[in-house]
Design a protein that fits this description.
Blueprint (H helix, E strand, L loop, with lengths): L1 H16 L39 E2 L5 E3 L5 E4 L8 E4 L4 E4 L5 E4 L6 E10 L10 E2 L6 E9 L5 H4 L6 E11 L7 H8 L6 E3 L6 H4 L9 E6 L10 E6 L3 E4 H7 L26 E3 L6 H21 L1
Parallel strand pairs: 1-8, 2-15, 10-13, 10-14
Antiparallel strand pairs: 3-6, 4-5, 4-11, 5-7, 6-7, 7-9, 9-10, 12-13, 12-15
The protein binds zinc ion.
The site of zinc ion has 4 residues, from strand 7.
Amino acid sequence: MLCLVSSFLLASILKICTGVGDWCYQAQVNCNSTCKGPDIWYKVHKDCNSHRQSPINIVTKSSRPDTRLTPLVFTGYQKAFRAVLRNDGHSVKVTLPHGSSVSGGNLQGIYNAVQFHFHWGEKGGPGSEHTLDGEQYPMELHIVHMRNDFSSLDEAIKDPSGVAVLGFFYEESKSPNRKYDAFIHALKAMENDRTATTNSEISLHNLILSEANMTQYFRYDGSLTTPTCSEAVIWTVFEHPIPLGRDQLLAFSSLKYSDGMPMVKTFRPVQPRRGRPVYRSCSSSSVAVGSLAPLLVSVSAALGLSQLN
Ligand SMILES: [Zn+2]
């Protein structure tokens, strides 16, 4: 009898848990929700189960140095604009005005900036999508670009190199990052609203790193990290994190999902690399010493050989 009751309860729970619904992050998956968590995003869109998915864990020592990964060329990134922040139910997103683009660094063409958004943890805890040697940073910025021969993102995501996303990690700093003040101020005004506008103007240039800190980056072929998971993205993930004060990081956790729960842990878990190469720009610092060692060994071996001859 007990067994029958348990089976009945289990069946009821399963029924509730497997109801139809939109996709959601793992933090939203519970028996009162009908949304589909990252493990079953492929039920929302089949591409989420495909072979070049993002994010990934980047292993610096197995990344390949590539001299073609020269510093990126940013155009229009200095242009100031009043940002409209939108809570789209999964993140906070800003649609960009026309006129900013990125090229160079072995990107095959010019890519126009379309929007940017963030992924974060819970109260400053782990929250980035990509991880670096297994380390998950508290937050990650994605600036989404589409190649300039496309007029819409919907078209660009059908091309294996139609989209270029720049990914930036964040790290907690002792003092606030004043360049983020206007943005964070608007964010705090969004606790109960779906949109907010910055009082003063911001620029992409002010949100990212200095040019000197952007020469070190990783490159691989991947996908969007939310359904449709389209495999159209040339990823550039910068090694240096952007500093952000603790209170500034916490401001993101005050946003709410559409069900009223705190919008936290808005990241997809890392996906299998499946043999894809990850390239690194040659000035990538964290591997410089390690990568010199085998070089020195082969140089001495070559010298030894020439002496023998
Ligand atoms: Zn993203």
